[in-house]
Write a structure and sequence with these properties.
heterodimer, A: 206 residues, mainly alpha, Arc Repressor Mutant, subunit A, 2 domains, globular, B: 141 residues, 6 helices, 78% helix
């Protein structure tokens, strides 16, 4: 698992740069790539977070996907970036899930095993603050948590199809490209995902 | 539930799920947003060509050029040797030309090389007779 790269920027730099595109003109596609990444990073993080149920792992996965996209595909047409980026992200998520599974099997043999890393993150600690009353806020948190868990429990292909089609808003062709399958398969996975989520959520239907 | 009703329910579910997930992405904590920004900048920074990287791009060509230059210098040293070692010191030629005796001796030896050797032999024979106190008459008179 890669370590998160730390840059030497202070708080003032971030305050100034947070919503500004890069001013670097020496790299022709840098500004366009920066705008693309800024547009997908939050949803990409949520997709990784739902799949991995771990904030730092999700951030690592998103950063790795960004790095690989920029290094390997920045010269490809910008219209191809989104499916490529999500394909890379999904591969990274699967790698992390496999790594976690292997690590869990190994640690299960140890008597002093710590369960800390396997516990899902506290939804209350991660919840957004929508400025609602306490009850409405709790209900929103519980609904979101239930939805996250239900999506997480979907088979990987259904989860991928649902998040890319529904959450990220890719069309069928882009979803199929990101998943590396036919458009018919992408449609089928999405349909089954919606059916499964509706059946699983019950009273917590959003 | 008819297929139309099921399709409508699926659509309604999808719309509400999208709204909920979208809200959660828009309201991420400041810590997560900051780290995402840093991750983005790190990715873009990694792809930007730096002066060092530009220098490294030319390194293979420089290495090839250096190799060719060294090979040329080596081949140049292995070329034909100097034609005359004497010519390496031109003062020797001047000295020989300025020495008139050496020139005449050289001319005599060139014309009568056997006579010159015989003369030396007679001289040594005469010198040996003088030392023994014998005939004072020079040999060959």
């Amino acid at each position: 698992m890669s370590a998160f790269v730390t840059l030497s920027l202070d708080a003032a730099d971030f305050a100034r740069l947070r919503n500004e595109p890069l001013q670097d003109t020496t790299h022709p596609g840098a500004r366009e790539m920066d705008a693309f990444l800024a547009g997908v990073e939050r949803k990409a993080f949520r997709i990784a977070q739902i799949a991995l149920r771990h904030e730092d792992d999700a951030l690592d996965a998103v950063q790795d996907a960004m790095l690989q996209l920029v290094r390997s595909y920045s010269k490809r047409p910008a219209t191809e970036w989104r499916p490529l980026f999500y394909r890379i992200l999904e591969n990274r998520i699967r790698d992390m899930q496999r790594h976690r599974t292997v690590r869990g099997r190994l640690l299960s043999w140890l008597p002093f095993r710590s369960d800390e890393e396997d516990e899902p993150a506290d939804p209350l600690a991660q919840a957004p603050d929508p400025g609602q009353g306490p009850l409405a806020r709790l209900e929103a948190v519980q609904t979101l948590e239930a939805l996250d868990v239900a999506i997480k429990r979907l088979p990987a292909r259904q989860r991928q199809a649902f998040l890319l089609r529904n959450f990220e808003g890719l069309d069928v062709a882009e979803t199929a490209a990101a998943m590396g399958c036919s458009q018919g398969s992408a449609k089928t996975h999405y349909f089954r995902a919606v059916q499964a989520l509706r059946g699983a959520l019950g009273d917590f239907r959003p | 539930m008819s297929s139309n009703e099921m399709e409508a329910a699926d659509t309604e579910f999808a719309v509400r799920a999208k709204a909920l997930l979208g809200a959660s992405a828009d309201e991420l904590s400041g810590r997560v947003r900051s780290r995402l920004t840093r991750a983005r900048y790190a990715a873009l920074e990694a792809a930007r060509p730096t002066p060092a990287r530009r220098w490294r791009n030319w390194a293979p060509a420089g290495a090839v050029a250096s190799g060719v230059l060294i090979a040329l210098l080596f081949v140049g040293q292995q070329g034909p040797a100097p034609v005359s070692v004497v010519a390496a010191n031109p003062l020797d030629d001047v000295e020989l030309l300025a020495d008139a005796d050496a020139y005449e001796l050289g001319q005599e030896q060139a014309q009568e090389p056997d006579q010159a050797q015989t003369g030396d032999y007679e001289f040594y024979e005469w010198a040996a007779g003088q030392a023994e106190g014998g005939s004072s008459e020079p040999v060959g008179t």
